[in-house]
Amino acid sequence: MKVHLGYRGLTLLMLPCMFAGIALAQDVGSGTRNLQTITRVSQELTPAVTEFSVVVLDQDPDRPFAYVGGRTGWSTLDLSDPSRPTFLQTLASESPVTDIAHFQVDDRALVAVAAGSEVNVFDVSGIGAGEMPVAIRSYPGGSSNTLFAYRHSDGRTLLIVSTGGDAVIYNAGGSADAGPAASIQTPEQPDPEARGFERAYAAYHADTETDRFYGAGAGGYHVFDITDTDSVRHVTSAIPTAVRRGHMVSTTPDGRYVLAGAEYRAAPLRIFDLEPVFEGRVSMVRTDVGAWTHDWKSFLLAHELRWPLVFVAAGERGLQVFNMRDPEAPYTYAHLSTSAAPQGEIDDRVHDVNGAVDVDVRNSDGLIAVLDRQTGLWLVRLDAFQGWDGRGYGIPNISSVQDWTHGPDGTTTFYSP
Q: Contact 407/151 with Cβ under 8 angstroms?
């Protein structure tokens, strides 16, 4: 396997001795010319929230908000003018916020906030009119909670909670007392202590007209059919020998390629091709067809896939953008330095939480939000990226962004990429 580092044309074999000294320190705010910083929001704008950890952009063009979470709570910012964000509110939390998901049920805008052993859901429909979020329900969590909100093809809004153990799926529009719609376990692993999911992703698979769950956890990365949540079915797994536990996962709009990361420094984002599974030639895949990283000390913490571009929060290496149009030869497309934090060594976990820790992309206009633990929230634009709609590339309009009104078959408004 070849792993691609840096710009197109630089292809290096996997020999660790070759990578010493590749990564050079950069000034905060420096980067490629195709990325323009609109503004940087320092932590002083939201003083009640310390140690930023997660940012989520509201995807409704009529709700230009960003939800930012950290160790002591979560805040809402108004991005009506991205060059001059304004603070709207903060809700304190006794436990660190580990994830946030926004979604819609009927005509209500909702935000789920994972903190401690609970996931609390707030109605934020009136936040633009000066109303505070209203807590409407809570779900039990686990030792480590991450969230993904999905609009199922049957019309339900599903909230998927990955607890570090099972991934639990709730019908967010149903009764809070109804219990989970489904609970998914990782396939049997040799080490029983390693079971469980770290993160989940869900997407409609247009070729088979099914809803699919993608989970990163014990053994690697696992795909389930959740079209019928009463009868969840394991489809396949990507189980590389180098990964004991997967950390993050997403899929291309056609469902063919899985983009997967592991939670350790120096791990690249691996690209797995599921076509051999779909063709019936194998039951699972073990070898990735491509991989990307900025350098071999990078700690890749989060990503958003807007095919063919992938936006990566890369710790001390800030925002990285790479192109995976050719999954076997991905190449760096843009980058922005957001942190002056020193880069940790391969085995140094002291620095693992420094720098860019989260990223989100607004499909309607292409706004990019990068959250850096030291320097705050960066709002950025990429040249020639004014929004994303898969149909502009001749592929399904499927990403982490959901069409809450019409479902995964498509939207009525077309945003030309």
A: yes
